[in-house]
Amino acid sequence: MNTTTTPAAVPAAHTESELIQSLCTTGRYSTPQVGRRIGLSRLVGRWDGWVYMRVARIISSGSTAAKRGRHTPAVWRKESEDLIQIMEAAGGALEVSGMEDALAHNGPVVYISNHMGMLETFFLPAICMAHSDVSFVVKQSLLEYPLFGNLLGATEPIALTRQDPRADLKMVMTRGQELLKAGRSIVIFPQATRAATFSPRQFNSLGAKLAARTGVPIVPLALKTDFMRVGKVVRDFGSLDRDLKIHFRFAPPIVPPYNSREAHQAVIEFIRTTLPGWGGCIDEG
Q: What is the pLDDT of residue 47?
């Protein structure tokens, strides 16, 4: 399967933060050990309530910007970087690797990933925008959340009901092709629901079909984000487990021409073989 890419210049606007600088120069990023709790006491930095108050402030500010028509991709990237810094200050350790090959590709891509929780929705805008602007395939219900729905709705998402597979397929193919042709990359989580355990049989081929239909590369992505657990009261905002590192690993792009079925299996195999090295679980049943 062809994975050859050609170097592309990284936009100057994407070289502002330490995160973006590291990704653009090495394709990697690791949370610095110094300053994991930027300007905060150890006690306050480990209080989950403090973390979520800061998260809520960013979401509220983004919602206001969206209502005023001022929520640009640059604003979204900055919000995502701020969320990463909040989690790092609270004791989270982020490890991103393998992005150098995606950055070398000039043009939009389709990122296909497993899905554990809300944390990747927070982090991936900043990480992926080291390469290009990005849109997410999301559940329609997320757009109905107070504040966060306004923010997310301003990012040009592709919203699916998860109730009508045929209608969802049409939406992804139609809107996805429009966004890709406009130069915007797409992140898709093909699982039916978020889960700490990766189940290949529940990982549909929607992302591979979209990429093949449009003729753009596929970038497989394996992630482990159970640092932020599923909540007991609010599912999207659970307790933080500071013993668990936050991982994102990108595979080299699968570039056209390719068979969508084979590409889909290659994504599954990348995730299946990557997760166990981080202590992740695979459901082979």
A: 74
162, 168 Cβ separation under 8 angstroms: yes
> How far is 152 from 62, CA to CA, in rounded Å?
9
Among 3.40.1130, 3.40.1350, 1.10.8, 3.30.70, name the CATH number for the domain at 14-282.
3.40.1130
- Per the document, the length of the chain is 285
Residue 107: predicted pLDDT = 95
Residues 113, 118, 123, 127, Cα dihedral to 10°: 20
Q: Which residue has the tokens 């073989």?
A: 273
Which pTM value belongs to this model?
0.89
The H-assigned helical ranges of the chain are 18-26, 42-45, 48-67, 73-89, 100-103, 119-128, 148-153, 165-181, 206-214, 260-274
